[in-house]
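In this section we walk through a basic example: taking a raw amino acid sequence and producing a predicted 3D structure, encoded as discrete structure tokens. The instruction is simple. Fold the sequence below.
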Amino acid sequence: MQSLEQIEGVWPEPESQSGLVLRCHAARKKPIDQLSDLELATLLNQDIGVAFILPEAVRRLSRNQPDNTEYFGGQLKEAVNKKTQQAASPNGGPAERFGNSGVGGGPPSVS
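The resulting token sequence is shown next.
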């Protein structure tokens, strides 16, 4: 399976050296099926590669075999629920509201 970096392209080196930014950059280099539950939840919460990683996250939840990397139980489920609720809302998710598909174009602002 491909990584987000292979699908979306390489991001420039991060200006910020915060732990979150570095973790997101590192996770984009890993094949999607090799991301931990924590990495999937983090990327989903940061709106990074959602269209590509959401199916893997849903697949993991359906297996009901957490890998114990989450900071709290249910972290991946919470991130998936947020994304599916955003997609179902009248205004769409953040990508639709801001005119950005969340694919390519460089890294989003990570908070």
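Looking at the output, two observations stand out. Residues 94-106 have pLDDT under 50 and may be disordered. Residues 15-92 form one domain. In the next section we compare this with other chains.
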